[in-house]
Amino acid sequence: QVQLVQSGGGLVQPGGSLRLSCTASGSIVDIVTMGWYRQAPGKERASVAVLILPERTRYEEYVQGRFTVSRDNAKKPVYLPINKLKPEDTAVYYCNIRAVDMDSWGNGTLVTVSS
């Protein structure tokens, strides 16, 4: 089973920026989607930004214009630069890669937005 390793995250002030990264431990073929989800305290995990290969993207309304999901075609990590952070963006962020025969999740990284 391919594992997804996440990096980035941490404490940032309102209005600040971060970049989350997610790298697969092995090769993945027939990828369908690559994306990011988040789980805020007391809430269920929810979609944030998803790449629908090869070229489409889907962003939730609350992150439109602030978050950008992208990937490195050669190395297959997926990135999430996030800008203009708000306190309500505080959550554990998870990356996800779905292929024809697999569905893998990262172990989560905490983003805390606070002054």
Structure description:
- It is a single chain.
- The protein has 115 residues and is mostly beta strands.
- It has no helices and 11 strands.
- The strands form 2 sheets. Strands 2, 4, 5, 6, 9, 10 and 11 form a 7-stranded mixed β-sheet that branches. It has a 4-stranded antiparallel β-sheet with strand order 1-3-8-7, with no helix packed on it.
- The radius of gyration is 14 Å and the shape is globular.
- 25% of the residues are buried.
- A hairpin with a 3-residue loop joins strand 5 (46-52) and strand 6 (56-59).
- Poorly predicted sequence stretches spanning 5 or more consecutive residues: none
Kindly state the number of beta strands: 11
Helix content: under 10%
Q: Looking at the structure, what is the overall shape?
A: globular
Q: For the residues shown, what is the average pLDDT?
A: 89
What structural class do the secondary elements suggest?
A: mainly beta
Major sheet details: 7 strands, mixed
How many angstroms separate the termini?
A: 40 Å
Write the H/E string, N to C. EEEEEEEEEEE
Number of helices: 0
Rg from C-alpha positions?
A: 14 Å
How much of the sequence is in beta strands? over 45%
